[in-house]
Structure prediction request, 84 residues.
Amino acid sequence: MPGPLRIVSERFPSLKDQAIRQFTRDESFRDLCEDYEACADTLARFESGKRGPEGLRNEYAALLLRLEHEMLRHLREHMDRDDG
Prediction:
């Protein structure tokens, strides 16, 4: 499993199968997953040892939440389409 898909599946285990489907089908969802992985990795580096300015850490934490929201929105929209 590619790294971006693994981290998303770990964050949203109940949506793992749907995330896998969208990851293989949809380039924009893949891009979101890749951005999420990069953001999560950067935030983890900042938080280990409290490196980096606090404001920058807060920006990455906010970005991570926005990416999560966007991924969930995307999955919900595609779930609705797959069901209908």
